[in-house]
Write a structure and sequence with these properties.
Pfam families: Glyco_transf_4, Glycos_transf_1
GO biological process, one term: carbohydrate derivative metabolic process
GO molecular function: glycosyltransferase activity
Distance between the termini: 13 Å
Keywords: Transferase
CATH class of the largest domain: Alpha Beta
CATH superfamily of the largest domain: Glycogen Phosphorylase B
CATH architecture of the largest domain: 3-Layer(aba) Sandwich
Strand content: 15-25%
Radius of gyration: 21 Å
Oligomer: single chain
Number of strands: 13
Protein name: Glycosyltransferase
């Protein structure tokens, strides 16, 4: 039987991005009836060795000749696009099945009339647009209702086997001189690290903040920490490759964001058994599942209060930790993969 050929197109494969990790998680374990290749728009590829070990070829758009680019776009049965501008490049695979993943509940292109027409062509040109959460799809329907018959939802998933899936216990905190708060995410305008740093300034000196991730806002965040006199308590770890190990050193996790399509990092923290607090934004509210663990964007007072309450009340801490572990079970990597490969199979049945 001939294999179904899938080409993924994405801007880069940096470990600093959620969509990039999404793609790698999707393709690393796949049914042998599929042959998968990845086209990356730039040279940055932190997962090359890992992907190559699984027999997945990666191509750099910048180094391909014109004929090689054309041949690669003609190769697949189905093209799966991720992120802007890669999703537009997928449209050049004329005559092929095409899907795109909507990774975020908001993008700036929706604010400009010129892009409205271009986005119209984009959604018209894809057989399916798959959102990573119900809230992302709701925002998409508001923006482009015409093609909602082409919209689907497949929730992101986490490989729970990489995490302990056991609740942390509050009695462990009483023996610690330092309480560690963690957050994983790019230092980018979509995240709200500022509110988290302001919250640290309102908490006793035993509370320390650990930020995993890198980005163009690092310098401004360091200046903010300095201006609030909390620099010694705010630790920038850069891009962290071993997230389970990073989370194992934390006592509580906060996902502070302005925009968040799903919140994969929050689910990973739940799987690590940590109490998780999240910004009340579309996507994160869905994943978190309870207003008890949400705070308004920018409300550092409420965030600091919730952190202190969790860490000072053993019953609350233990309850939040058990809640996290049970919540993580909803978002398995197997369900995630089954959702996408089911769509691939549906589209390619009549190839």
């Amino acid at each position: 039987m001939m294999k179904t050929k899938i080409l993924h197109i994405i801007n880069d494969l940096s470990q600093n991005g959620g969509a990039q990790k999404f793609l790698v998680d999707l393709v690393l374990e796949h049914n042998p009836e599929y042959e998968i290749k990845i086209l990356v728009l730039c040279a940055e590829n932190d997962y090359l060795e890992q992907l190559s070990a699984r027999g997945i070829q990666c191509f750099n758009w910048q180094t391909l000749s014109l004929s090689e680019k054309w041949s690669l776009l003609r190769w697949p049965d189905l093209v799966h696009g991720h992120l802007y501008p890669s999703i537009y490049l997928a449209l050049l695979a004329i005559g092929k099945k095409r899907i795109q993943t909507e990774h975020c509940s908001y993008n700036r292109r929706r604010d400009y009339p010129l892009f409205k027409f271009i986005e119209y062509v984009l959604y018209w040109g894809h057989h399916y647009t798959v959102s990573i959460s119900e809230k992302v799809q709701e925002e998409l329907v508001k923006f482009m209702p015409r093609y909602q018959h082409k919209y689907r939802v497949v929730h992101n998933g986490v490989d729970l086997n990489r995490f302990p899936m056991t609740a942390k216990q509050a009695h462990d905190l009483s023996e610690k001189a330092t309480i560690n708060i963690g957050m994983v995410g790019r230092l980018h305008e979509h995240k709200d690290h500022e509110t988290l740093i302001h919250a640290i300034a309102k908490l006793p000196e035993c509370y320390h903040l650990h930020l995993a991730g890198d980005g163009d806002r690092k310098a401004s965040l360091q200046r903010l920490a300095q201006s609030l006199n909390v620099s010694p308590r705010v630790h920038f770890h850069g891009v962290v490759s071993d997230i389970p190990l990073f989370l194992s050193d934390m006592d509580i996790y906060v996902q502070s964001s302005h925009v968040e399509g799903f919140g994969l990092a929050a689910v990973e923290a739940m799987a690590a058994g940590l109490p998780v607090l999240s910004s009340d934004v579309p996507g994160l509210d869905e994943v978190t599942g309870s207003s008890e663990y949400l705070f308004e964007v920018g409300d550092s007072n409420l965030l600091a209060q919730k952190v202190a309450e969790l860490c000072e009340d053993a019953a609350l801490y233990n309850s939040a930790s058990h809640y996290s572990v049970n919540r993580a079970k909803l978002y398995t990597i197997d369900k995630f993969r089954e959702g996408y490969y089911g769509i691939y199979q549906q589209l390619c049945t009549d190839k």
